[in-house]
Design a protein that fits this description.
The protein is mainly beta. The protein is built from two helices and six strands, in the order E-E-E-E-H-H-E-E.
Length: 87
């Protein structure tokens, strides 16, 4: 039997909201990296994962990524996804 499709919502600490879906994937957490470049501009990388451990694992490679890409700073956040209606 096919899994029920649902909409998932991530609300970050700064109020930014990301809606994912419709999806039947078993995602539980959302992660986001906001990187500041040498020229003052920002790049945002994001994704979703099936566990908090998987999401937190993204942080492991951040220091190396920052060095390789020349980021002056970065912020990493993980939040739990909640089911919601499409926005």
């Amino acid at each position: 039997m096919a899994r029920k499709k649902r909409y998932l919502r991530a609300t970050m600490a700064d109020g930014w909201v990301k809606t994912i879906g419709p999806t039947a994937a078993p995602f539980t957490h959302f992660w986001r990296i906001v990187a500041v470049l040498d020229n003052g501009k920002t790049e945002v990388f994001w994704g979703h994962s099936k566990s908090p451990k998987e999401a937190a694992g993204k942080k492991t490679a951040l220091a190396e990524a920052a060095r390789q890409r020349g980021w002056t700073s970065y912020a990493f956040e993980v939040v739990e996804l909640t089911e919601g209606k499409p926005s």
